[in-house]
Design goal:
The protein has three helices and no strands. Belongs to the COX16 family.
Amino acid sequence: MPTFQSKPYGKKGTFDPLAAKVKKRPFLLFGLPFIAIIIGGSFGLSQLTQTRYDHRDMRHRKVAKEEALGMDKNRRKLSLQEEYWRLQAKTDEDWEQVRIERPEGVE
């Protein structure tokens, strides 16, 4: 049969005063640190997210500048009439409209 060591009577442990305070106010030991971690994590994640978006915006600005410099050199004027004629020239003339038989039961 196992024997359990008992505490000697009258001898106080090192953490006994703290244990009594925790029993009285458990929020100070559990609740307050939990809320502090949640709030601190929120601020930390917001900074991390902001850094991510700043990096992405900087990369897009750089690409936009490079594209703008490259597009200005060989730019042609846009004319709606020219675009219309260009699209008309692309149509296929090798088709003809054929009427198919109606399915049975449809009037």
